[in-house]
Specification:
Number of helices: 6
Low-confidence stretches: 32-41
Number of domains: 1
Radius of gyration: 18 Å
Mean pLDDT: 85
Number of strands: 9
Structural class: alpha+beta
Oligomer: single chain
Largest sheet: 5 strands, mixed
Order of helices and strands: HEEHHHHHEEEEEEE
Helix content: 25-40%
Distance between the termini: 24 Å
Strand content: 15-25%
Shape: globular
């Protein structure tokens, strides 16, 4: 196997976060055993082709839905509310072309900071919707994948994507430091 960005930089990042050495794993093998990076979180490597999603979907909706149940008792009592939250998050992604990337990012950031509330409580009272548990990081799920194909107007393939609770929070395009032709 020759030296390239995939088996050097990309696999190195995955190895550092998960403990999985993809240079030693046969291709097509699912890696399901997480390795602690810090005391408070665990990253799990899942090959992109094994993620349960369509090529046009950015969110890992199954993972997101399970996290919404786990972090929000009012949503767990009425699972249809999870679909409503996911619909609202998808709407932000769809409207980027109309409202602009900055405005869409600002709106999504308010969701990520758990600043939105919806009438999901008893007697339709508004309750905060938690997408990420910042007080106990172990309540979140952490997935890293690589060679993630996404199609909007054209197909893009970021080198690594890091998800927290089914939401992409880091998208990385990795370059080797030893090839002078790559800037």
């Amino acid at each position: 196997m020759g030296f390239n960005e995939l088996n050097s930089v990309e696999y190195f990042v995955i190895h550092r976060l998960t403990g999985v050495n993809l240079n030693e794993v046969k291709s097509g093998t699912a890696i399901e055993q997480p390795v602690a990076l810090y005391d408070s979180d665990q990253w799990r490597y899942v090959p992109s082709e094994l993620l349960q999603r369509d090529i046009t979907e950015v969110l890992l909706e199954k993972e997101l839905k399970e996290s919404l149940y786990r972090l929000n008792p009012d949503i767990e009592r009425n699972p249809d509310h999870a679909d409503e939250v996911i619909h609202k998050l998808r709407a932000i992604l769809i409207t980027v072309a109309n409202v602009g990337q900055v405005r869409a990012n600002e709106e999504f950031a308010t969701w990520l900071r758990n600043e939105h509330s919806l009438p999901f409580g008893p007697k339709s009272e508004h309750v905060k919707i938690l997408l990420i548990d910042y007080s106990d990081l172990k309540n979140n799920t952490y997935i890293i994948t690589n060679q993630f194909k996404i199609h909007a107007r054209e197909t893009k393939i970021p080198d690594v994507v890091m998800y927290i609770n089914g939401i992409p929070v880091v998208v990385g395009e990795l370059k080797t430091p030893v090839r002078p032709a790559v800037s």
